[in-house]
Amino acid sequence: GGGLSAARVSTISNGGEDNHRAVQFQLSPTGVLKFQQGDITQWSVDGSSDAIVNPANEQMLGGGGADGAIHRAAGRELRAACYNVPEVQPGLRCPTGEARITPGFRLPATHVIHTVGPIYFAHQNPEAALRSAYRNCLRIAKENNIQYIAFTAISCGVYGYPYDEAATVAITAIQEFANDFKEVHIVLFSDDIYNVWLDKAKELLQN
Ligand code: AR6
Asked: Where would I find the Macro domain in this sequence (predicted)?
């Protein structure tokens, strides 16, 4: 990988589990893409305005997977903030492929960007919807002057998106924003998905 050192230190404290080392790729003279294994709820970059991305559902009131973990770690204020996001239809706050931003409350990260990926086998164009989710997260982060952002694998859990295909969409969408962030992190929960995504990054980003 690129191997240049970043200006700031990001931390994921995960109780001393034996993590993979973070691997990073230089996307532009100023922008880095980093892969690490761990728990996104513990992620932050010291002393900066930063955001974790929550793979939520259209109701935005919590759920299982990473969404559940993020809500538990952020505290009840996050649910209240989500509840106050205007509905676009009764009960629906964030349509698939869109993004909304809230504070991070008790999380180490200052912001949470909530997005909704496609349900792979139910959506007519899951690739377009997933790409739109990544782009809208990056767009809203930019609008809020966030220079450090961490994603997990949107739609790759409950929503059933194949890891390999999702990695291509994520990496190519992030590449479009190569000049807009100091660091984009991808924090993957399991060995399995970490290895698939890192292989895809090497394929797409290394000459
Ligand atoms: N840190 C990082 N990644 C995690 C964590 C964590 N703490 N927990 C899970 N993952 P999922 P989706 C990984 O199911 O597929 C929820 O109920 C997980 O292993 O969280 O977009 C929502 O409310 C997988 O790789 O999100 C929605 O209803 C990735 O995060 C629905 O699930 C995403 O898996 C959204 O499904």
From this structure: 20-205
